[in-house]
Amino acid sequence: MTAKEICSHRLTIVTGHYGTGKTEFSVNLALALADEGEQVMMADLDIVNPYFRSRERKALLEDAGIRLICSSQACSDADVPALPAEVLTILENRDVRGVLDIGGDPVGARVLARFRPKILQEDHQLVYVLNANRPEVREPENAIAYLRAIEATTGLTCGGIVNNTHLCGETTEHEIRKGADLAERVSEETGIPVLCHVAEERFADHLRDLREPVFPITIKMKKPWEL
Amino acid sequence: MEKELWKGNEAIAEAAIRAGCDCFFGYPITPQSEVPEYMSAHLPKAGGVFVQSESEVAAINMVYGAAGAGMRAMTSSSSPGISLKQEGISYIAGAELPCVIVNCMRGGPGLGTIQPGQGDYYQATRGGGNGDYRTLVLSPSNVQEAVDYVQEAFDIADQYRNPVMVVMDGLIGQMMEPIEWHEVPKRDLAPKDWATTGRKDRDHNNIINSLYMDPEECDRHNDHLAEKYAAMEKNEVRWSETDCDDAEVVITAYGTPARIALTAIETLRSEGLKVGLFRPITLWPFPEEALRKLAKSDHVKAFVDVEMSSTGQMIDDVRLAVEGRKPVHYLGHAGGVMPTVEEMVEAAKKALKEVK
After folding, report:
1. Which residues, in sequence order, are CB contacts of A208 under 8 Å at separation 6+?
2. ipTM given for this complex
3. Per the structure, how many domains does chain A have?
């Protein structure tokens, strides 16, 4: 299944509890869409985390022809919750596919509320990223509470769940399957479909039996000791 | 037990709660704000007290008060905020009170940058406050160690009635890593019969103070403190060595640079070059004897000290331990720029070439 089919709306808005791997998924999604020939723009709207933001991969994205919108260059390492006006170009330019990487938690998702009227006019999907190894969202009821809080803050309705269960370098197939179970339970409770299971390419072939498609990724948000 | 994925700062806060932290006083500053944020949500539920103070100065003085009343007290901040706490730390050390202080270091001097740094080594090991005092300083190099050391720090602080600092570069506070919650060794601790909890049926008042009007009494007090510091130097020194047994070049580093060094060493070893890592875990007391032993060995030809600091700070302790026996080179960056694997490989090769 192509990335375009998995995230089939013009705008994909990526939210979730922090640490679930939203940025890794967003960067890989933008690259995959670009690879499929789409004109892609990505917005780093993370006002919560000071480190490990998609803007750190600006050069990589630009090399793939993806325009990254983030806070002004001079402030890219500052913890100033200011949003660039260019975000509107993603929302208004219907020729581009947009990936919006939102900071963690309802607090981080608050930035979206300002754009709600515009987003509602567009073909969009709010995506909720789940990681069953994050203690605060590993139980379905907690995961759903977070999801509802994000919806309440943003005024948007979640349209899809992405299982991105991992343990950094210690991820195994078992972890991803554990996440698939959690995603399924959240999906059953809420009626929100599971869009895909994110897995590093090395696991992708072993997970073909999962009901939903596997979205293969390569790790882009590397730590300084990872070559 | 199954591993869980935690953000460093949240994990530190949870670790403190599990270690029986009664009181947390703090003030937000990047990159450590998740510690007070997590504490505000979870410490009261565990029966503790959380106060967001009006400043870092207030926070450390609240720690002073709570510790004096026998509570397990903690504060955390990042570099400029830790500077503000220095007066309080000196008072707490002078009054012989236990507490835990976490410094999630960013670049300096002044406001510097919010990106990770290690420029507070002098401040942590030499003390930014006045007088002859020491703080025991633990330095984790990953989230699991941060969790383990924070829990242990409370026991160490209680045992010596002295502040214990856990210092780490901002990266460790901000990153996500799998960790395991396991039992950390508990120490046999004396009851806090010195705490100011009301006179009750005692025959004397407990008084918390760092003021001595009589010079001889103050001298004796300092001698007593010095004995405590000597005991810490004897009992609490920690370090780790990787591939040092046959190493010709030894990299000295702590925190994240030590972790980067492990990858550099793998690369160097795969090319047949004998390079090892010496990582101090306690920055004070510094593992001087262990490093001196390496400096005295025939196989070690040179040292390369690596820090997230422009001039190097730990390098002073490395030189004091090496005592001029072998050359000590330096590689470092400040401002949140991290030394890379490639730079370490190159620095080790250069050091090796010079002595061959």
Report:
1. A214
2. 0.87
3. 1
